[in-house]
User: What shape does this take?
Amino acid sequence: MSAFTEANRKAFNDLSATYNSKPWQHKLSAQVSDALQQNRDWLGVRWSKPDDGGRDVRLLDYACGTGSITKALGPYVSTIRGVDVSESMVEKYNEAAQSSGLTSEQANAVVGNLLSDEVSQQLSGPEYQLFDVAVVGLGFHHFEDPATAIKRLTDRLKPETGVLVIIDFVPFDDELARERKEHAHHPDGDFPDMSHTIKHSGFTRQDVLKLYEEGGLEDFGWHVLPDPAVMELKNGTRERTIFIAKGRRSPSAWGKVRNWFGSMQQSMGGQLALRPDSQYTS
Assistant: This one.
């Protein structure tokens, strides 16, 4: 684990006791949840339905925290696996899942890091492969290497149908600089260490589009929430704009051949249907 990831692990462990306990935090979680639910058809995921014959729809909640994304999308999937570097966050996640009546087979989180040089054996098994959708909710700006994150998460999706969703902030460079300056003068604020665990001060549409394309994703989509996120800290109120990005994993090499062959068959079938048969023409 790199020094930066270790700093994130420790900071979120310390934060877990008060995480999502303040009114503005509840409002922010609800804001993201509402946006995901209202735009779930746009995301392009084959969600679970009452009449789908019990089809398993699998969600990877990466950097899951206490489970805000799981709560938002839980009604539309059947199996959820959470992953986070923070032991305390994972503990809170599993406590919340169990108190909601979910079994560990339905929803369970583990401590892990898909971005490390050597991924743990626990995350290498079939239980953590072939997801219908993977989501990172407001954690992407804490990732040391976003390009590697996109590629590793894309590898966990079903080829051709799996969807990667990132919810994060558009650039907030000036605000981050101000937060770090104020932290130096007021180290006893609400989140004294969090500004130093932020690796990227937000992302533009072009930033994320490039990451998605290089990571093996297509059908890119970008949606900006109309209302800003409002964070009320001891050293002042902060506003940030939230985006939702989506992309579908490209087909495998065989899938591309299959799709090409299928399109050729359709094209040839159409041409034959339009071509008059000589033995019936006068």
In short: The first helix runs from residue 3 to 15. The domain at 3-250 is CATH 3.40.50.150 (Rossmann fold).
